[in-house]
Fold this sequence. Notes:
By secondary structure, the protein is of the alpha/beta class. The protein has 2 domains: 185 residues, 3-Layer(aba) Sandwich (D-Maltodextrin-Binding Protein, domain 2); 115 residues, D-Maltodextrin-Binding Protein, domain 2. Strands 2-1-3-10-4-11 form a 6-stranded mixed sheet.
Amino acid sequence: MMLPRRSLGALACALAAPAYAQSGFPNAPIRLICPWGPGGTTDVQMRVLAETTSRRIGQSVVVENRSGAGGVLGAQSMLSARPDGYSITQMPISVFRQPLLNSRALFDPLTDFTYISHISGYLFGTVVLPDSPWRTMQELIAHARANPGKLTYGTPGVGSSLHLTMELIAQRAGIEWVHVPFRGYAENVQALMSKQIDILADSSGWAPMVLEGQLRLLASWGAERAKRFPNTPTLRESGIDVVSASPYGFAGPKGMDPAVVRVLDQAFRAATMDPAHIAVLDRYDMAPMPMNSDEYSGFVRRTMEEERTLIQRLGLRLS
Length: 319
């Protein structure tokens, strides 16, 4: 739930006083890995958050894109990074799925990372071209049921929330469609515009094109209708009992100094509620979901169990 705007300033001030001088950290730029391509929702939002965080800590927070592999490259890079707080990454939920989907796990999400701050979640949607024959999810599902295995959909990667949710939709609806993974939103939407795929499943980078009539939004995936698209039903309203938001936060290598974690946590949570960052969240119909390090670690444990149940229910295995 979005906080009232009158409370944002007070909360930001309450969070904006970490003891930087006492810890001596940071005294150099911080590298923040965005495991998605440039120009997408995550990239745009993280760059604004990095800028507002930089002003609070007196050092640059530099966003570095490492797209591909369903969003796990940032987490994978933390395995060899020094636990000094100068290399951190966004942690999408696909990180928690990697060891559940593969027989050879790249890492253990419960032991191989230090969880710093939880930040937000996404608005996802099912999007098609405006000249497509489908105006509703019901029409799309009916077409897929009559043409099993013929429709293709694009996502930002194998094992991503978009991929698993589309497969869950297919299971619930009793249909079959074909997944085409891309490295991020830019490649995904380009494939849709050039008609290489039939359906785009992605976060709300599509919103401006939908508002301009260049794309058609069939359904949003949140618990409630998106603020900017009040006439577009949710999946639940379309007869598919699925809600997907894929909340995320930031983490670093295991073994980080708790004092450094506190500095980063306080700075990131304050920056999350900064009006400039809230404006970007509003632009993409995202909601602030700040959690401190301990709360985030508990969230990860619960999420791992929920994802294990979902993957077993879908019968998914990548290797």
